[in-house]
Amino acid sequence: MADRELPGAANMNRRGLLKCMGWAGTGVLWTVSGGVPRSLGLLGEAKAAEAPAGNFTFLQISDSHVGFDKPANPNALGTFQEAIAKINAMPTQPALIIHTGDITHLSKDKEFDDADQAMKALKPPVHVIPGEHDVADADNGKLYLDRYGKGTKGKGWYSFDHGGVHFIALINVFNFDPGFKSAGLAKLGDEQLEWMEKDVKGLSASTPIVVLAHLPLWTVYQEWGWGTEDAPRALSYLKRFGSVTVLNGHIHQIQQKVEGNVSFYTARSTAFPQPAPGSAPAPGPMKVPAEQLHSVLGVRTVNYVHGKSPLAVIETPLGA
Amino acid sequence: MLHGKAAVSLIALGLGSILYAALPQVPAAGEAVVQAAAKAATVKIDNFNFTPPTLVVAPGTTVTWTNDDDSPHSVREKDGKFKSAALDTDDTFSQTFTAPGEFEYFCSIHPRMTGKVVVKAAGS
Question: What is the DSSP letter of B27?
Fold first, then answer.
């Protein structure tokens, strides 16, 4: 795919290039520079992730679906462990790691245990949010919240700061409006939105913002429910900020969009790909030839460089 | 068990019931299915659909959902009156409906998937 320009925000004097890599990868490496996260490339090109002193990188993994064992990937725990081994082999460790949900496939205790065990091997701190697969127990997410909800607000949302960047972890897997009432899109809900409005109130407009949410905060494909109904309200609280980066999972492929000051990205899965929007009768695990599986899984790294250039985003396929 | 019940209704209610009980329980697309003579009914979860989308049963019927998809699904009544855990491939969930009423449900993992169970006495 062709390189694409990321329009900078008004207070930036440089524009960053974003490499659109299609789908492939274990996760995504990000660099934050001048307040705009941008992809550095794929994990196999981890050299690019070596940030200059004073700057930092962080890494996104997503949709590990631990417990999944169907033909699309008979060993989702195995590919998750591979992704983790790749991250551990990076010459410069990211400052922190984000898992944007669907850690497990069926919200089972054993799956959470296996995932936890795998993630313990990671050296940087790991921040997680749930996907709908993590809150599918009959108790509406109790298992997830018992494990990961400590110190969070409401149904698991939270924010934190690192290196001058304000991270906001939103949860949009609890308030689904069933399809007979709406388009079946995800929802953040009033309680969380009110919290978010207060959370960003005291921040200077020059603070780089990184928002995490499992389902995309823009409507990638309504027919499959790939969007968040009340995301516009969340984004309205971020209008005054010069740099807003939204990182999502859920759709198991890379999609990106830039709208004003906001850059949206979805990440690959560490487990299995899904069809492109509308290219199949329904979303779901997509079987690719075994030798190609690793090229459609991945991680993302982001590099933050304090100063004037944008965040850099690197997509890394597991097979790299 | 099923045969016994069909025979009873045949004697008690006559020809109309014979035809009724003999109706195949295969739904046409989008059509409600009446399974009044049976005390068990099934809903298939297949290709991200509940089939039949609307199921009509008599009070006392136990409805069993079976997930035929590779993707997990769940069955959750819209106000939480009944809900399943995530159903993996071939997993089932059963719910017995004692009182008449309409129950709209959806898959909490894929909320665009919806279905309805209508519970009413036969002939009402």
Answer: P
